[in-house]
Design goal:
The complex is a heterotrimer.
Chain A: H1 2-7, H2 11-16, H3 18-53, H4 57-62, H5 77-85, H6 88-119, H7 125-134, H8 140-153, H9 161-166, H10 168-184, H11 188-196, H12 201-212, H13 214-230, H14 233-238, H15 247-255, E1 256-257, E2 260-261, H16 263-298
Antiparallel strand pairs in A: 1-2
Chain B: H1 5-15, E1 36-42, H2 49-64, E2 67-73, H3 79-90, E3 96-99, H4 103-106, H5 115-125, H6 130-136, E4 137-138, E5 141-142, E6 145-146, E7 152-153, E8 156-159, H7 160-167, H8 171-174, H9 184-189, H10 192-204, H11 217-229, H12 246-260, H13 273-279, E9 285-287, H14 291-299, H15 301-304, E10 307-310, E11 319-324, E12 327-330, H16 337-346, H17 350-359, H18 376-379, E13 396-399, E14 401-404, H19 407-415, H20 418-427, H21 433-448
Parallel strand pairs in B: 1-2, 1-3, 11-13
Antiparallel strand pairs in B: 3-12, 4-5, 6-12, 7-11, 8-9, 8-10
Chain C: H1 2-7, H2 10-17, H3 22-61, H4 75-81, H5 84-117, H6 120-135, H7 138-149, H8 155-162, H9 174-202, H10 206-214, H11 219-247, H12 251-256, H13 268-278, H14 282-290, H15 293-314
Chain lengths: 299, 450, 315
């Protein structure tokens, strides 16, 4: 905590006080030590997954050597087999389609709703704002049975479009809440000024609010992306053909055969599956943070 | 309903399959329009095994002008049960679905009676496994047809070399790959007491047997088999809780000794734990279908070459092995029932069954004793004859934990793994046998509500 | 934003001064609320059709007997309340969710501060590394963890043995099994808190800290009096969301222990799955799933009301 407060000291003033500079270096050092510790905790499993994915099946099964290193030679077989012998690439494509559609739907629905709930009022809007969050209280392990009927009724059973239909229930409520928060933090004068200027509500939203709330929108996008990329229960229940399957369920079901686990390929699949979200994060996080910082200083 | 000559030809074609089956009373299926039939089948873990089933179904489909579509649904994450539950609830889905363990009982109200199909098969193949009957004949009506695919028993799979070297037992000599050569004097020695003393020796030698004690089917099955061998009854068929008995105490006492010479991690094993234990080379024996052997063949051939599948030990009440058949169920909401029944008959003919058994390297075990003589079990290697005794041989009887309680109750006992939790409480939790029995009595009371 | 907070409700009072045009404003307000409602419509349709209707269906389901032929009222719930195993599940779910969320929030807060402190050049790299657990699909990363804990092949135990220790029965001993499932949950969830907190930290105006520094507040005081109050809403929403999701978590326990050993890691979702899907008593499974609903709903309503109230005060 010490570190935080010191860090926000403007640099110029720090220079004039040598003790503070020393303090600051010390704080930075401590920060790094702790960060390294947390990074070890966070990265141990991914590291082990990477190592396993480059081992041969025999080395994994024997356990004769140090499991943390690749002793019997690096092999790309697991990845090769994953891409050629399984439907992994189909799962990947399906997941990408589903995720993109869900993110778009989620953002449109939740921005509209959040704008209306956060900036405008109508009868019951307060109850609605609280109510949507409560939807998370009904777990998907329970919802899938009635949803199965709906999905079937719409003729979407065993089609990944069923996921485009149901995933928004996982993403929209939280995204709406994030967006409500951001819209509410925007000064009230802005919309009143715009209204008096005769701008319509949609114009106001598009021209004023969306640009200002961009960090919030990115945060919500990232959330929606991650959730729909990783969802497990619904595809487990609604999809069974492998040409419709998505990454999470497809990887698990095609690489675990009854009591036979293909560890190397499973780990390879998990890592490849994690790559797109990681890239998206690395890319969007910069905008996210930049937007936030800009917003904060402007405020 | 009209009857057409197509159907008669359909019946005749079974007679023409040239099997030993006797078609006493030809099964006459009502006509069905050429149409579509959808199946949701268990996704086999053996590479290529699904193709054989697909091939058989397509053969039938071409002959009968029915488009057959099969979705292979894995049991991983209980995906198959999830799908079945959703389909039953929604009243829509595949025509035929394969159901594991107790799922016929679970969905009995949504499943079409299949007495005609099963009775026909009994006429052709002779007696059916009592476990299959217990699981699929609900209140006198067959609601499922036992499958070949995925049906299994869980006898011993042991290391020939380790047993010989450390326990002084030659398992190949005791259980040679020909039932006719079984010597009763020798096989009778193979009882739970000998199993324990040899397990103790193997434990001392650093190669313990690995018997799972979690809450999944591998664990429930072998403990259920042992309970049966000791005459333990949890709940009888008239809803009387019988767990508080001397037999239970005797079995628990035995298990306390046996679990002491198992590796401590058996309490965390799922159905793959014992396989990995054997494949790793650390374990001397497990109780499992030959899937562990098959993985060893791929990943650790030295271990595989020394694996021998053989009957389970005998107990005071007999030699019981855990059996877990699968069934095809036909949903009541199916719109093509006659075709579905015809297809089920077709894939249950001797010739078809033989192909399925071969495709799974002997893993799939039909529920008819007369179908346990395929060459596959004799020819699979290494070592030659390793899975010969995988189908129940000699005096081995099949059983399932939960029986003889009425099947609603049995399903709860089995799925909540009351038997293995009892054992784990005793051996891992250090509770007293009487407390464990008291706990079990209360849990069993809960199952009677069903 | 600090300015806004100080200015409070000025704009509305300005509005009040324009009373003469009240008639026009009322019409405007009516039109405004109609538009607002229309904007919410997609959300309402999704929530009503895909959550409320199925939820009502589930509630009806929980009042039926096993074969769903008879209405039993609260019979399933009273039955559950009489079972020892169920009470164990309640207790375990509470421990599981509360401890996991607490540590997630704590680790998220600490790491967010640490990252926020770094010179901006280095932040990106660290942020990326610390986010990895959150982006690997949970079902797959849990498999990776499970493989690390695997009784026969545990790579952790390999290290422990290398240092001369004895194997830890990660998943077979009830204590360690509970520890392991909670650990995986923390590992997976902490980065989510990190992102949310990092965003919140960035939005705290620096002027506030400067002012506090001039007043001679120390680091802890600044954290307690500036950072925490400014982050309260985001912390509340994140914790609430995480609490609900953790209570409902299914993947981790199902994959790692499936409730064992001796039912000692079962949580609501896995126990409901066991009763509903594996044992085929869907109504009873639904009852287990719904058991926490009233308690969580009441706490959620209070937390969210607080959040909305504070948000209004700030705006």
């Amino acid at each position: 905590m010490t570190a935080t407060a010191v860090a926000v000291e403007p640099a110029g003033r720090a220079k004039s006080r040598p003790s503070l500079a020393r303090n600051r270096r010390w704080a930075l050092g401590t920060s790094y030590v702790f960060l390294v510790l947390f990074a070890i905790f966070f990265l141990t499993p991914p590291y082990y997954m990477i190592v396993t994915s480059f081992k041969s099946d025999a080395e994994v099964a024997h356990m004769a050597t140090n499991p943390w290193i690749i002793a019997n030679g690096v092999t790309l077989d697991q990845y090769k087999l994953l891409f050629t012998q399984t439907d992994f690439l189909i799962y990947f494509r399906n997941t990408a389609i589903v995720t993109i559609c869900v993110v778009v739907i989620t953002m449109v629905v939740s921005i509209l709703a959040a704008f209306s709930l956060g900036r405008m009022k109508f009868w019951g809007s307060g109850i609605l704002a609280t109510g949507i969050f409560l939807t998370y209280l009904v777990p998907d392990t329970l919802l899938f049975i009635p949803l199965f009927q709906i999905v079937r009724g719409l003729g979407l059973l065993n089609s990944y479009w069923s996921l485009v239909l149901v995933y928004p229930t996982l993403t929209v409520p939280f995204c709406t809440w994030i967006m409500i928060g951001y819209f509410q933090s925007i000064p009230k004068e802005l919309d009143e000024a715009a209204l008096i200027d005769g701008a319509g509500h949609m114009q106001m939203l598009l021209k004023i609010f969306i640009p200002v709330a961009l960090p919030g929108i990115i945060a919500a996008t990232i959330f929606a992306f991650t959730v729909s990329w990783a969802a497990f229960v619904y595809p487990l229940a609604f999809l069974y053909s492998s040409d419709q399957q998505v990454l999470t369920v497809g990887t698990v079901t095609s690489l675990i055969r009854a009591d036979v686990y293909k560890w190397g390929m499973l780990m390879a699949g998990a890592l490849v599956a994690a790559a797109p979200p990681l890239v998206i994060y690395a890319f969007l996080m910069d905008y996210y943070i930049a937007g936030l910082t800009a917003g904060a200083t402007k405020g | 309903m009209r009857r057409s000559s197509v159907t008669r030809r359909g019946v005749l074609k079974y007679a023409a399959l040239g099997t030993t089956a006797v078609i006493a009373a030809p099964y006459i299926s009502p006509t069905y329009a050429a149409g579509r039939l959808t199946l949701g089948c268990w996704d086999h873990w053996v590479p290529g095994a699904n193709n054989t089933l697909t091939k058989l179904c397509n053969e039938w489909g071409e002959k009968n002008k029915v488009e057959v579509q099969i979705d292979y649904i894995t049991s991983q994450g209980e995906k198959d049960k999830l799908t079945a539950a959703a389909e039953a609830q929604a009243g829509t889905g595949h025509d035929i679905m394969s159901h594991r363990d107790w799922n016929i009982q679970v969905h009995q109200n949504a499943l079409e009676p299949l007495d005609d199909v099963v009775n026909q098969l009994i006429k052709q193949h002779g007696p059916i496994s009592p476990v299959a009957e217990y699981l699929a004949k609900i209140k006198g009506t067959w609601r499922g047809v036992p499958t070949t695919v995925g049906s299994q028993v869980k006898p011993c799979c042991s290391r020939l070399d380790l047993y010989k070297q450390h326990a002084g037992i030659d398992l190949r000599e005791m259980f040679p790959p020909d039932e006719a050569q079984y010597d009763k004097a020798k096989t009778d020695q193979w009882n739970w007491d000998l199993y324990l003393t040899s397990a103790e020796k193997l434990f001392k030698a650093g190669y313990p047997v690995g018997l799972p004690m979690g809450q999944t089917s591998d664990a429930v099955d072998w403990v259920g088999a042992l309970f049966n061998a000791y005459g333990v009854v949890m709940v009888d068929d008239k809803d009387n809780i019988k767990i508080n008995s001397d037999e239970t105490r005797q079995a628990l006492e035995y298990l306390k000794k046996l679990m002491a010479v198992n590796p401590p991690e058996v309490y965390a094993w799922d159905d793959a734990g014992n396989n990995r234990w054997l494949v790793s080379g650390k374990g001397s024996g497990i109780m499992n279908p030959p899937s562990a052997w098959a993985v060893a063949k791929r990943d650790n051939p030295d271990v595989a070459a020394n694996c021998w599948t053989h009957p389970i030990p005998r107990g005071p009440k007999g030699r019981f092995v855990g059996q877990l058949p699968q069934f095809y169920g036909l949903w009541k909401f199916s719109s093509n029932k006659a075709a579905a029944k015809d297809l089920l008959l077709y894939i249950s003919q001797r010739d078809a069954v033989g192909q399925l058994v071969a495709a799974s390297f002997g893993y799939d075990l039909p529920s008819f004793k007369s179908l346990h003589d395929f060459d596959t079990w004799k020819t699979v290697e290494p070592p030659l004859g390793t899975v010969y005794s995988y189908p129940p041989r000699g005096d081995e009887q099949t059983s399932i934990a939960g029986a003889p309680a009425r099947s609603d109750v049995g399903a709860q006992i089995y799925n909540q793994a009351i038997n293995t939790v009892m054992v784990a409480k005793l051996t891992q939790g250090g509770e007293k046998p009487d407390d464990v029995i008291k706990w079990a009595e209360r849990e069993l009371e809960g199952t009677l509500r069903a | 934003m600090a300015e806004i907070a100080h200015r409070g409700w000025q704009p509305s009072s300005a509005l009040a001064r324009r009373r003469p045009v009240a008639h026009g404003l009322a019409r405007l307000a009516r039109r405004r609320s109609t538009i607002a409602f229309l904007m919410c419509l997609p959300l309402i349709v999704i929530v009503a059709g895909l959550v409320i209707y199925p939820a009502c269906y589930a509630i009806v389901l929980s009042t039926l007997n096993k074969s769903q032929t008879r209405f039993v009222g609260l019979g399933n719930f009273t039955f559950l309340l009489s079972r020892d195993v169920f009470w164990m599940v309640v207790w375990q779910s509470a421990i599981f969710a509360l401890s996991a969320v607490f540590f997630k929030a704590l680790i998220g807060l600490i790491t967010a501060h640490l990252v926020n402190n770094l010179p901006s050049r280095g932040q990106r790299k660290w942020r990326g590394m610390l986010l990895v657990p959150w982006v690997i699909p949970l079902a797959l990363s849990t498999l990776g963890w499970w493989w690390l804990f695997d009784p026969t092949h545990s790579a952790f135990n390999w290290i422990i043995r290398a240092f001369g220790g004895t194997d830890i029965p990660w998943l077979s001993d009830p204590f360690w099994a509970r520890f392991s499932v909670i650990l995986v949950n923390i590992w997976y969830g902490a980065p989510f808190f990190l992102i949310m907190y990092l965003a919140a930290l960035k939005s705290v105006p620096e002027q506030l800290y400067e002012a506090a520094a001039i007043d001679g507040a120390n680091a802890w005081q600044r954290f307690v009096h500036i950072t925490l109050p400014m982050m309260r809403n985001i912390i509340a929403i994140t914790v609430l969301f995480s609490l609900i999701v953790t209570f409902a978590n299914f993947d981790i326990v199902q994959i790692m222990t499936a409730g064992g050993p001796r039912n000692m890691t079962h949580v609501f979702a896995t126990y409901a799955f066991l009763l509903g899907i594996r044992s085929g008593d869907i109504p009873l499974g639904a009852s287990v799933s719904l058991f926490m609903l009233p308690i969580l709903a009441i706490s959620a309503v209070f937390i969210l009301r607080g959040v909305r109230k504070r948000a209004r005060d700030i705006a």
